[in-house]
């Protein structure tokens, strides 16, 4: 028995040993300068993981303030909160940039249903941002299911007085889920403008998600150049409801779908970008931006979209200050307003940067959720792209393997220019569209470590960019 | 306004375009043979992501059967379920391997508390596997807090009649969380054997987790060669309770901690490994194993530990069959019994393999949770390790970047030999110890896509191993 227990004990320890994977970061593969960088990066990660503030900040933003669509009282609370917090972190200066933003309101909770053999099926539904309301009585009409804008357009006048149901699902074989989103979102954005033109009564769209579940996902739409009298109400239904409706339509092609919503677009409202900076120690006239968007959809708390980007951006500055890292160039944290329905904050920021002849060297945006870090997407000239990619060995010990050329983000894109290096932070995207623009995008879906690893990842690339993109002339590390 | 709307529409589309990261897999970088492999791997992923069964299987295993500690009625139900399911998937042969397993039972729900200034604080607690019970009245004693086995040992006879409180937390700066676990678990495994020897009344251990929360985490312990009369009860308390108790002890060093538990170790019970195989088309005498463990702790549903490993392992065979891929060597799926407290199933499997002179070429284990894929850990000779690492360009489009040398897993380790290639599947580990061995390890914590991506990752490396480790003589791809 004694022998058995000893054997057993050693097998237990084997379990933990077998699972050990982490190797100490091998400083021998690094040059002297890279060793300094590697040590600095490790320090940024250690601080984030042991003294990080982002998780608690996120709790306040999501649970105390909540959903904060542009023009809402919550969005204004978020502005005040953001300004106060930037001051608390001790940025050298903090200010608000006034900007007029669209002001769309959802109104009463939407209702949708249809009857099969006298039995009513209720459908989870939500209006799309900028949609008009239905009449007070709602819309009741037969349904035509289509899979694309082209298929809808081909219907022509057959759409008259019908509800058009866009039901092309995400391509789940795409590994990066933003690709699947990109392949479907035209239905949501343009569906109503296409169908309104032919006298359809309304448009319903399958929710933008990889999952099959009961949550309708909102998001912005546009009537494009459609004359106002042709505007029709549009809404998203849950993916499961879309599957069921599609099946029911096969057996009952003449079923009548009913929905009612009371949303409306009010006059533009005054709001703000929140901006704070650490003055550069050597060339303060050169500016790096790190940011996310402060507004969110109204259905939930705006945790992954984009509370995480907000608190991570500020944590970059916090990590610099906490470790007494003084950026050579000015490091500016921007909480952009109105990314979700207008990107007015982004445009205002770029407009003022131009007006004030500010020299932006680079910008980093976090607007892909707060999941475990995977890397960065680089939108820069060839020289700078290669420079950033050369940092792979410094970043890969932290799971940051993806350093591909690609887009950056909607809020920093207006800063695009030949010598401006734009970077999008890219966390793992597998779960993102479970929560995106729907009622489940809440604080409890964010993991503290994953959030903090993201802050440290962002701080690390900003540290390297500040050092090596110095004065916009790349220096080989 | 029309111009504004058009501008707006294009900015919306910019959002989705900016987020697009995925590039088509560049077949030009591949040799002719690698193009075949790349296509095959893509097919495995496509099938998993569109026709995968693992999520539904996991739902049944976790929600219909539930926690399934060795020797429990649920473990036996899981054996019957596993055998039936392997037959349904259409494996060529399915059988049970009898094995005697330890049979420890938790008994009544544990109780713990202490009083400060007459106010009682209740403490979330759970007995550790193989611990003895307290007396029916429970244990009440003063507490000495220590951070290590060495610190405890140094106390010597001062431990007499005291409760020893092990409170060394995870090192949260370690990026791979299994490292942090490996650095702490000795407190849980050996604490009672060290302290029992000096007459302590009991041992309580801080839960093994990165998080600070209210869930006690169970896990196995051992009395080693301590004589039976020196065995003392041991339990884990939640990490938050550990922090609070530590603070309270500073102000009230003489506080008395109380806990009661009624667990016991019953005689060994009969159980089974569940084994099924697809016969090899060329050299059926050569065997590859893919497996996980069927047993789980009793506090939850055993979702991430290790329901996900079970369903992913079977899905490897399902993906082969669905795509009509006939392995050259025999592909054997093994649901190991009793990984959590004894690894008797693993030992039995290896013992029978030796007895039956089976030629194992390799084995793959999934026992690190069902989160998003990161890679594999390779325990093989140098030639085979390099061969596996040469597949990086085939695997990295799926987020599989980690192909380091390291341990494999507790259930396949007994198969270790010079020419046997052992591989551990390594999903992202950041959230894993939030759920590990505690009541929150439930089905809802598993994401369908992440689970399926894991199955496909495993199927892909098995496909490559079957093709290139053929007959144990590595062939350059």
Automatic annotation (TrEMBL), chains A, B:
Its main location: endoplasmic reticulum. It comes from the Bacteria. Pfam families: Peptidase_M28. Coiled coil: none annotated. InterPro entries: CPQ, Peptidase_M28. Keywords: Carboxypeptidase, Endoplasmic reticulum, Glycoprotein, Golgi apparatus, Hydrolase, Lysosome, Metal-binding, Metalloprotease, Protease, Secreted, Signal, Zinc, Zymogen. Residues 273-452 form the Peptidase M28 domain. It is found in: Endoplasmic reticulum; Golgi apparatus; Lysosome; Secreted. Homodimer. The monomeric form is inactive while the homodimer is active. This is Carboxypeptidase Q. It comes from Polaribacter sejongensis. The lineage of its organism: Bacteria, Pseudomonadati, Bacteroidota, Flavobacteriia, Flavobacteriales.
């Amino acid at each position: 028995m004694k022998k058995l227990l000893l054997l057993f004990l050693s097998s237990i320890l084997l379990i933990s040993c077998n699972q050990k994977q982490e190797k100490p970061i091998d400083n021998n593969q690094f040059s002297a300068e890279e060793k300094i960088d590697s040590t600095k990066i490790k320090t940024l990660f250690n601080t984030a993981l042991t003294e990080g503030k982002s998780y608690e900040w996120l709790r306040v933003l999501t649970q105390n303030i909540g959903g904060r669509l542009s023009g809402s009282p919550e969005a204004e609370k978020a502005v005040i909160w953001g300004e106060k917090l930037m001051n608390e972190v001790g940025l050298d200066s903090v200010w608000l940039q006034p900007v007029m933003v669209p002001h769309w309101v959802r109104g009463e909770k939407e209702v949708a249903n249809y009857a099969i053999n006298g039995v009513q099926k209720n459908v989870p539904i939500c209006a799309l941002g900028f949609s008009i309301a239905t009449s007070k009585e709602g819309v009741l009409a037969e349904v035509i299911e289509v899979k694309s804008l082209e298929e809808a357009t081909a219907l022509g006048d057959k759409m008259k007085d019908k509800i058009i149901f866009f039901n092309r699902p995400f391509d789940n074989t795409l590994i990066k889920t933003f690709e699947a989103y990109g392949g479907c979102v035209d239905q949501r954005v343009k569906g109503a403008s296409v169908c309104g033109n032919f006298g359809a009564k309304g448009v319903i769209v399958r929710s933008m998600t990889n999952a099959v579940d009961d949550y309708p996902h909102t998001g912005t739409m546009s009537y494009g150049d459609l004359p106002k009298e042709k505007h029709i109400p549009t809404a998203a239904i849950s993916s499961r409801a879309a599957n069921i409706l599609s099946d029911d339509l096969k057996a009952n092609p003449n079923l009548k779908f009913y929905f009612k919503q009371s949303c409306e677009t009010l006059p533009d409202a005054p709001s703000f970008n929140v901006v704070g900076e650490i003055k550069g120690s050597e060339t303060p006239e050169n500016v790096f931006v790190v940011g996310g968007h402060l507004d969110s959809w109204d259905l939930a708390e705006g945790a992954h979209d984009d509370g995480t980007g907000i608190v991570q951006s500020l944590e970059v500055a916090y990590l610099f200050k906490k470790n007494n890292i003084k950026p050579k160039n000015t490091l500016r944290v921007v909480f952009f307003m109105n990314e979700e329905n207008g990107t007015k904050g982004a445009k205002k920021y770029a407009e003022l940067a131009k007006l004030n002849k500010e020299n932006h060297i680079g910008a980093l945006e976090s607007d892909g959720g707060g999941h475990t870090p995977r890397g960065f997407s680089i939108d820069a000239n060839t020289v700078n792209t290669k420079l950033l990619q050369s940092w792979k060995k410094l970043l890969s010990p932290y799971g940051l393997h993806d350093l591909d050329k690609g887009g950056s983000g909607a809020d920093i894109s207006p800063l695009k220019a030949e010598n401006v290096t734009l970077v999008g932070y890219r966390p793992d995207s597998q779960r993102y569209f479970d929560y995106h623009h729907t009622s489940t995008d809440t604080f409890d879906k964010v993991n503290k470590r994953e959030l903090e690893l993201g802050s440290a990842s962002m701080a690390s690339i900003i540290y390297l960019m500040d050092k090596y993109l110095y004065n916009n002339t790349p220096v080989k590390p």
